[in-house]
């Protein structure tokens, strides 16, 4: 029959192991997320008024298909062309940096979410890592056995208690 100390040690070890599994899963999600296809910026960001002023039919044709150049130019916005899964998207903004970085345009491109893995890791790691380490240290301090794997039998030293 298990003693109370062994039961408490088991609970602490399983809590720690659960946190370790959460950490491992968040690492896997970050790796998978970094490997998926991301939108690519085509060319550089341009001021909509400049595109209208150049009156170059090739450039005007490209950007006119993806954004309303008249509206964009009247607001003094920048435009950049992004490609994702074979489709072109025009992204407009009031500064060059607002159309230049993937983090700033992710919500403007349908069916794409930037940094899902990073968001999950940012929400799991701050509580799971300390709790996992605390459970190992707590088991060692209270029961004399640092248990990384909870299904291993606890070796309870009576002197440590």
Stretches where pLDDT is under 50 for at least 5 consecutive residues are none
How do the SSEs run, as a string of H and E? HEHHHEEHHH
Strand neighbour order, sheet with most strands: 1-2-3
Largest sheet: 3 strands, antiparallel
Q: Tell me the number of helical segments per DSSP (H or I, 4 or more residues long).
A: 7
Mean pLDDT score, rounded?
A: 83
Q: Beta-sheet strand percentage? A: 5-15%
- The rounded distance between the terminal residues' Cα atoms is 19 Å
Instruction: Describe the global form.
Output: rod-shaped
CA-based gyration radius? 27 Å
Question: What topology does this entry show?
Answer:
Blueprint: H1 4-35, E1 40-47, H2 48-54, H3 57-66, H4 69-75, E2 78-84, E3 87-93, H5 96-100, H6 102-105, H7 116-143
Antiparallel strand pairs: 1-2, 2-3
Structure description:
Helix 1 (4-35) packs antiparallel against helix 7 and helix 2 crosses helix 4 (69-75). A hairpin with a 2-residue loop joins strand 2 (78-84) and strand 3. This protein has a 3-stranded antiparallel β-sheet with strand order 1-2-3. With 161 residues, the chain is an alpha+beta fold. It starts with a helix and ends in an 18-residue tail after the last helix. It is 58% helix and 14% strand.
């Amino acid at each position: 029959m298990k003693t109370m100390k062994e039961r408490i040690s088991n609970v602490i070890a399983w809590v720690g192991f659960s946190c370790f599994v959460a950490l491992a899963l968040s690492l896997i999600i970050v790796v998978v997320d970094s490997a998926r296809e991301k939108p690519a910026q085509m060319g550089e960001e341009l001021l909509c008024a400049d595109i209208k002023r150049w009156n170059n039919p090739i450039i005007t044709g490209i950007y006119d298909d993806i954004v309303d150049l008249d509206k964009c130019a009247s607001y003094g916005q920048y435009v950049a062309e992004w490609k994702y899964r074979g489709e072109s998207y025009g992204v407009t903004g009031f500064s060059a940096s607002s159309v230049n970085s993937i983090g700033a345009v992710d919500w403007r491109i349908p069916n794409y979410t930037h940094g899902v893995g990073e968001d999950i890791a940012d929400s799991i790691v701050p509580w799971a890592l300390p709790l996992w380490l605390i459970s190992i240290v707590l088991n060692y301090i209270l029961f004399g056995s640092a248990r990384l794997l909870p299904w291993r039998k606890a070796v309870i030293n009576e002197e440590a208690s």
